[in-house]
Amino acid sequence: MSEDYYKILGVEKGSSESEIKKAFRKKAQETHPDKTGGDDSQFKKINEAYSVLGDKQKKANYDNFGKSGASGGFGGGSGGFDFSQGFSGGGGNFSGAEFDMGDIFESFFSGGARRNSGRPRQKVGSDISVNLEISFFESIFGVEKTFFITKNLSCNECSGSGAKNKKTKTCHNCNGDGSVYGVSQTFLGNIQTQKTCGVCDGKGKIPEEKCKSCTGSGTVRARDEINVKIPAGIEHGMRLKMPGRGEVISGGVSGDLFIRISVKNETNFSRIGNDLKTKIKVPFSELVLGSKREIETLEGSLKIKIPEGMENKGILKVKKYGVPYGKTRGDLLIEVFTETPKKISRSVKKVFEDLQKEGY
User: How many other CB atoms are there within 10 angstroms of residue 331's CB atom?
Assistant: First the structure.
């Protein structure tokens, strides 16, 4: 095969691993020989392309040297798969690549189900990702937030059964098993397949009469109230995971909700690890003679002492006024600085002239 692997999968050269994997799954489902309109020849090309682009090292060799650079990863450079590496029983990993044969079969044999201890794997709803903006203060000390998202929820009318009055009957297609079985001819040979029943969606039961609220699907599109506790010390860009709060799927388990934290800082404080830093401007005389000052912190006012002879842009440290972590806290770092005045009075000028004479 001389085609461009990227074109075969329908992705750009700079695509991420997840984008390549998603494209592969879609193409594999479309062209699998067991599917109506499937194409065995194209199916083989898709698998060959992904075996290279799904492996970081092979992908790098392919990008630099073309197909010949990636051929070392195949069985004897013949262009076929070497299933002796990382493939035993129902699935495994190719060396150096996140290439799970279970993922391939899961895509091939529909419905997100595959054989696992005699039972099809349970379907999982889609994950949801959202952004949540919090203040700098909230990021340091933690906060509880409530917001709403629109997603698939279990139908209250039928409790997710899809049946009016919750009355169901045994599925005629799978006889209540939830799966249908068969044998597929693939380039690997004859493979016994187990597919989630497309009539009952793997439940083994179908409605005697469909629920009017969800039209038999078991789910409805609605707003869901999310309450989340943001831990103290969270940083900008971090993500929180709420298991089971993603999309609800009929006959399966809900996906997860991922919350990306965006910290909006409108304070005079910055964060350095678990320490907080701020700046205060003082007259030159205070650096020389020292002074006492009252400054504002994230927790209110605080009295500090500026020692005599402090250097410009010197740092004062106040212990345990920083970011909470575990059972302790970081420190507060205060940069004390002064600026040279642009204009001074004659009397002040005289003072500096006297200081200059003294060598200051």
Answer: 17
